Amino acid sequence: MTSAKIASGVDAIKISSGGVDNTEFGYLDGVTSAVQTQLNGKVAGPASATDNAIARFDGTTGKLVQNSGVVIDDSGKVGIGTANPGTSLEVIRDTTAANTLSSAATLTRTTSGTAASGLGTALSYQIENDSGSNYTAARVSSSLTTTTSGSEEANLQFFVGSGANTASTSGGLKMTILGSNGNVGIGTTNPTQKLQVGFSGDGSVAIANAWNTFSDIRLKRDLVKLPEALNKLEELSGYYYFWKDGEDQSRQVGVVAQEVEQVLPELVKTGQDGIKTVDYPKLTALLIEAAKQLKADAEKFKADNEAIKMFLCQTQPQGPFCRR
To answer: Residue 191 burial (CB < 10 Å; 0-12/13-18/19+)?
Structure first.
């Protein structure tokens, strides 16, 4: 290698702050002592290093200073925070503080323009199918619905693929959590309650062995029995009906929220979208009190009937009901 092979403009000043000139630079294959001395001052590594570790350089001096904490082993496995990754990518975040919540990894989405609603990031899971293509089986994504600094609103969505509705399409969306109120939606992207399964007419069914609600008397105060339960029940109607929209067009059975609201407004909630819902299980309290009122009325009727029978039998002992 001769100085003629060195691009013009490469001189001692650009090579280093020392006295290396193009002539000495041309002898690198048989390094002169002067060059060696200056090279020794420019490159320095740690006294020891972790096997397979990726090097880290000092941003000021440009020197190799120590391991980066990232390793790539001979099989291609990548470890961050661990020298012995057990999977293709393993990330370990160690902390000495107890009960500390800290991220082991962060996905960041930025934009060169103005942030707009819907800007987000996602983590996808792809699996090779029998045709050799990578199928997007699952995806977890988060986006901002409001991007105003200090007033941001985010959501978290879970996608699971099925056929053409891969996890990378809107058809794969299964569950949404809204950051604004913590509402969880399964089969809906805009849940209006803490937990909403589907929407009207979609045929959604939620099944469980039990769905218990808080009812301990120690949690309640100012208990008052429902008055005029039978009269209230008479103001309600049960209907057969069909949903106006949605896939489920089978005949339904139920009540009308607006009618229930006039009698027992405590059983009706109005969502953010203005749609009213009925807490059907709480109708049980009304039915219990109505049944008790019917029983009391029946017992009174029976007692009155016995008194009338006794009176008539005293005056007309040969009457047909007196001979029984």
So the answer is: buried
Rounded to whole angstroms, the Cα distance separating 102 from 115 reads 26
Report d(CA 42, CA 47) in Å as an integer.
16
Segments in the chain forming alpha helices (H): 12-15, 22-25, 33-42, 229-234, 257-263, 283-315
61 near 69, Cβ under 8 Å? no
Q: Is there a domain that residue 203 lies in?
A: no
Q: What is the pLDDT of residues 164-198, one digit of tens each?
A: 988 888 888 999 999 999 999 998 988 888 999 98
Contact 107, 121 (CB under 8 A): yes
* Pair 24, 15: CB distance under 8 Å: no
d(CA 10, CA 17): 13
Q: How far apart are CA 278 and CA 283, in angstroms?
A: 9
Residues 271 and 160 in one domain: no
CA distance 12 to 217: 89
Residue 156 CA to residue 141 CA, distance in Å, equals 6
pLDDT digits (tens, 9 = 90+) for 88-108: 888 887 766 666 667 777 888
Residues 173 and 244 in one domain: no
Report if residue 62 sits inside a domain: yes
Looking at the structure, do residues 214 and 279 belong to the same domain, yes or no? yes
Euclidean distance between CA atoms 273 and 241, whole angstroms: 22
Residues 308 and 222 grouped into a single domain? yes
Q: Alpha-carbon distance 205 to 53, whole Å? A: 53
Q: Are 189 and 176 in contact (CB under 8 A)?
A: yes
- Do residues 223 and 292 share a domain? yes
Structure token pair of residue 319? 């009457």
Do 220 and 264 sit in the same domain of this protein?
Answer: yes
* Pairing, β 134-146 against β 195-197: unpaired
Q: What phi and psi values does residue 175 have, to the nearest 5 degrees?
A: -145, 140
The tally of domains found in the chain comes to: 4
Q: Which residue, chain included where needed, has tokens 């930025």? A: 110
Decide the pairing of beta strands 89-91 and 78-80: parallel
Determine the structural domain holding residue 82 and report its residue range.
Answer: 46-90
